[in-house]
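Pair request: fold both.
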Amino acid sequence: MFAYICGKVVDKKPTGAILDVGGIGYELLIPVTTYEKLPPVGENVKLYVHYYVREDSHALYGFYTMEEKDLFLMLIGVSGIGPKMAITILSGTSPEQFKERIASGDIKALTLIPGIGTKTAQRIIVELREKFASLRKELSSDNLSFFTSEKMEEVFRAMVALGYGKSEAKSLVLKAYKKLGSNASVEQYIKEALKSI
């Protein structure tokens, strides 16, 4: 019904935002990842939306990127996952991390997200894994260790904080990982990643 909404941010909090569109206030439920990207109150923003209708509730869910919206739709298609749980899952991880965890079958990493137990994590992986089959093929055994390592995620976040785009940062960190192996320190990985630029 709705694809996206463009409007002025009237109010925002980690779980929701209100956009003014031509004098009408639209209340959107959002994941934390979208909240972190919202502009200050008073500025305009475009959010992709999904209008969720049940007998007992109608709600608009908003997402900063189409990728987040697509993942939300996939998640609510998993048996036992409702929109609130889907928003919680999206709030607990980036779309890239989530896809990588599904593709690699990383149950442990998924259970770190609040509200996700082992059985739910297994069900999500079973039902969504084929959708990320192409990504799974890209993950070699080296890449698998990289994507599921907290240490490498820390290095990746550091590179992003230094101003590199996510895809560039991922490529640089992966090069450093392949050169140094799995036993280097966070600092050593960062230095090696910066050297390869």
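--- second member of the pair ---
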Amino acid sequence: MARIYTLSNVPPEVSAYGMAKYSRSSASMRDTLLELSQQKAEQFLNTFYFAYGHASIADLAHVALAVEDISILAAMDVVDEPLWDGQERSTRYQTFHDAPYYRPAEAPPDFDGLARSLFAQYRSLTDDAYEAYADRHPKPAAMAEGVYRRTLRARAFDVARYLLPLATLTSLGQVTNARVLEQQIARLLASPWPELQAIGAEMKQAATVAAPFDLLSERLQRAGLRVPDEVRAELETGPSVPTLLKHAEPARFLANVRTAMRAIAAEVLGSWPVEPPDLVRCHRPGSDQDTALSLLLYRESALPFGRVAAVVADLPPAVKREILETAFQQRGPHDAWPSAFRQAPLLFDLTVDIGAFRDLNRHRRLFKTMQEISPDLGYAVPEPLTEWGRDAGYRSRLDAHYAKLSALAASLQPYLLPLAHRRRALFAMDWAEAAYLIELRSKSSGHFSYRRLANAMHQELTRLDPALARHIRVTPYHDFNPLER
């Protein structure tokens, strides 16, 4: 008869060792773990993970990590892993009135004035939006007063979040396996942004050197219970993954690929002016090679994917081969292929406000190619403000903010862009993930920005294949109840 049981209080590397032993021993997990120690696990991992290259062992060590007090700008890059699981502070359920913000070391005093101005406008817009919703949607008799206030507050935050600066501090919790964590840290260490480099270094320190937060020991201490030394020694297991991540270094190969592609993009795409963005445009991939080259260049441009793909399609075969050679020429023995070679049958070129992008950024069954945030794409206007006839003041305040922002150094400007600012990204996925995203994000309870985007995605799929698209249970955009949660 089958024996099935869960594990508890097992350090990640010891757990990975115990599971890896299944392929090398007939012992049960229970017996393997009982005779294990962190030292034995380290010896095993040094042999099989590093010496023999059995990288799948790192997939068995899962690490829960808290990443707190980082900017929203940085958080978008931290979570950009296909196999990442986690949650970030919500702009719908938490207030950011007078929130702390990230301040680059080289920021002048004007930086603080612009940040504080956006926070003040955010606070004012929260109150105005709440009053507008309350005027138009009185409390139903059957709804409790507390539920009504919380629901309208969430809707008001959905409008006000457009004015939060990307420097706003946020926090996130993540659970990844050690291989993903190593890739994440290596990518962050190679970032051109000092904040991301510092985050990568601190994540490595937390996982490989620092003692983890031990909930059991903390509760015993707070309860004032005397714990025998031999028991305490068993509880204090040391760092979470001292072995598997000790060689995490900056991902120079991927950074070098981006630098090389940026120069090529400037050469082959530079003559094309930035085009007015569509909300959504869905493309079918061409050949594997053309699609990969288009993705490599799209990321380093400000053009829609359709334009980039058309330019790539017209390149001579010799030029295409040269770009491919450039992309791979500095690849080391342990470097993975660039993410441009992860392909799926549907390519959605999206231009959305950053607030909506953060919501979509949590979807994991897809591949993302993000362009750098550029002030050229401008900002979005919350639809309720237009409906209420209150968008003129919003526009004038943001126009004034952008005018002042242009006087700052280019490296500082992204931190003071509001969540209203638009960015362009390509989301590659299959039909099942597209259906899941559309069905989830089109629901009445969702944010109006990504609800409109989900409906536009459905329209694009209907254009491509109406027989398949008709089976997606999309909620029409105008089927909306503001009191639904």
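Observation on the second member. The chain has 20 helices and seven strands.
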